Amino acid sequence: MNEQKHVGILSLPVLVGALGYFVDIYDLLLFTLVGEKSLTDLGVTGDVINHYKLSILNYQMLGLMLGGILWGVLGDRIGRMKVLFGSILIYSIGNIANGFVDTVEQYNWLRFFTGIGLAGELGAGITLVSELLSKEKRGIGTSLVAGVGLTGCVVAYFISKELDWRTCYFLGGGLGLLLLMLRVGVLESGMFHTMKELDVQKGNFLMFFNSAYRFKKYLLCILIGLPTWYVIGILVNLSNKFAANMGVLGKVQSDKAIMLAYAAIAIGDISIGLLSQYLKSRKKSLYIFYGFSVLSFIAYFNLDGSSSQSMYLVCAALGFSTGFWAIFVTIAAESFGTNLRATAATTVPNMVRGALPLITILFTYLQGSYSFLHAAMITGVIVFIISITAALNIEETFHKDLNYLEH
Fold first, then answer.
1. How far is the C-alpha of 359 from the C-alpha of 230, rounded, in Å?
2. Which of 6, 171, 220, 310 lies 20 to 30 angstroms, CA to CA, from 35?
3. Alpha-carbon distance 305 to 51, whole Å?
4. Of 388, 243, 249, the residue nearest 315 (C-alpha)
5. pLDDT given for residue 377 in this prediction
6. Backbone phi and psi for residue 249, each to the nearest 5 degrees, phi listed first
7. 403 CB contacts (<8 Å, ≥6 apart)?
8. What is the pLDDT of residue 192?
């Protein structure tokens, strides 16, 4: 394949990827922040609110999982840029439509539709940036995309406190549509341009399973990311319940804990990118952040009788230490050839998101034999053992030349 021309870290493709992921995260977390208010406004009252919130989140999660496969395949068949902006268009329209819902059933299907759109942005952006930047700079570039993008949760939190929930959805959709204007002048990957003319399978999802070597790489890429959603989905999302069980003094608001954790994740993502550049190793930087994660995990379950501020501080520490989202998606992109790269980078993070229900099932099952706190501890230990074992077995990709194909 021909030599790839590289762009700078602060180039337009990196900017578009970062802003796209910013709006993506804003929209992805928005329902978590306005779900109760919106359902109450739709006439849902009492304990049934939690049932409907879970139902709508499940529809969104299903959309993310299916969308991850769809956009990944399309990314390798029609191009990274087309997927990047196609996904932005879909989730922008979806969020504007969310602002007009009148029934829970409409809410379910619109979050499903929006989830399909939200699934494609990060993988396409990381793939594009990985292929346009030199191997010496791509770790920093992809970390900047994720670091800037994850601050979308912080913005969503403060906006949800000030504006009506319908306006919050309209704003998210409007930001996405404005972002599409930046499409002009953004380069498509030269690697993709060269590859699309070749007679080779492109975006074949089944290729992950028809080779034991590829399947092992794909599975390991998924498993190294599991702690991110264990931390956010269970420890931070249920921080108010954990605080009550541990006798934490003062009221803990889970939405505030989520906002602080995501702000710290953004800092962590940029930090691990710089660290991997300094160490010239994805794996070594990942090991260090796993170490931070385990220490924060231990601190979390030793908050008995402490203040609510201590809980918020530890949630932020957990967020920072699991700020390896960009690196693990970058590893996925670097682990596969150009004709399968977008499929890998787009499906892997959505498979990790899809693993949260499995982690939750384990957590719920353990509560039949253990206390709420001990069930969460055991679940966490299992998740960390699986992920650290996977990281020990995955290939180092820092110096890898990405200009190759899968056959």
1. 7
2. 310
3. 31
4. 243
5. 97
6. -80, 130
7. 1, 3, 4, 191, 338
8. 63
Residue 39 vs residues 56, 70, 124, 157, 166: alpha-carbon distances, Å: 10, 30, 33, 18, 11
Give the torsion through C-alpha atoms of 10, 14, 19, 22, to 10 deg.
-110
Task: Report the pLDDT value the prediction gives residue 293, as an integer from 0 to 100.
Answer: 97
By the 8 A CB rule, do 391 and 335 touch? no
| Coil, helix or strand at residue 223 | helix
**Under 8 Å between Cβ of 99 and 169:** yes
Tokens of 107: 């809410």
Which CATH superfamily, name and number, covers 12-393?
MFS general substrate transporter like domains (1.20.1250.20)
Angle between helices 341-366 and 372-393 (to 10 degrees): 150
pLDDT of residue 190: 61
Residue type, 292: F
Q: Which residues does 352 contact at the CB level (< 8 Å), separation at least 6?
A: 222, 225, 226, 228, 229, 328
Helices 121-132, 325-334: crossing angle, 10 deg rounding: 60
- Give the CA dihedral 76, 80, 86, 92, nearest 10 degrees: 130
Q: Helix (H) and strand (E) counts for the chain?
A: 18, 0
CA separation (Å) from 10 to 4, 85, 134, 310, 403? 18, 19, 13, 37, 22
Nearest Cα to Cα of residue 220 among 335, 143, 322, 65: 335
Residue type, 76: D
Reported pTM: 0.86
On whether the CB atoms of residues 286 and 328 are closer than 8 A, the answer is yes
Query: Can you give the residue ranges of every domain in the chain?
Result: 12-393
Task: Divide the 407 residues of the chain into consecutive groups of 10 and give the mean pLDDT of each group.
Answer: 60 82 89 90 84 84 90 88 86 95 94 92 83 81 86 92 95 90 63 68 88 95 95 92 94 92 92 91 96 97 96 97 90 90 90 87 94 96 97 93 83
Identify the pLDDT of residue 211: 93
Radius of gyration over every alpha carbon of the chain, rounded to an integer in angstroms: 20
CA distance 86 to 129: 17
Question: How many angstroms separate the Cα of 108 from the Cα of each of 113, 384, 407?
Answer: 9, 33, 40
Q: Cα separation of 267 and 166, whole Å?
A: 30
Is 254 strand, coil or helix?
Answer: helix
Query: What are the φ and ψ backbone dihedral angles of 307, each rounded to 5 degrees?
Result: -90, 165
